[in-house]
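Lab manual, section 2.4: Encoding a predicted structure.

Procedure: take the sequence of the chain (110 residues), apply the prediction step described in section 2.3, and record the output as structure tokens. A sample record is shown.
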Amino acid sequence: MDTLLIVDDCKEFPLIVTGFLAVDDLKVIVKESAREGIDFVMSNGPVSVVISDYQMPLINGVEFLGWIKANCPHTYRVLYSSHSEDFINETEAVGTTVHHFSPNPENGRM
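Recorded output:
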């Protein structure tokens, strides 16, 4: 069974994604901070995919996914953000820390 880890300090987006991905062979785990995501991976081992928000307290999504890359290099990493100013970080993130950057669907551009 594949595991998807969603990390976001806002509860709405993970609920939307979880609803779309309700399939028998996918386990979806939701954590509300990068620290919780790191703790989960350290306790349970690598996951198949991590989807992370960019703007989170203490550790942002690029930093978090950088940790995932260093510790779980085979995990597919997706970063998203609903703030247009974060698109500046897309260039630095894609190809180095994350596999894909996407705007958050809350602002209608996904």
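Check your result against the sample. The mean pLDDT is 80.
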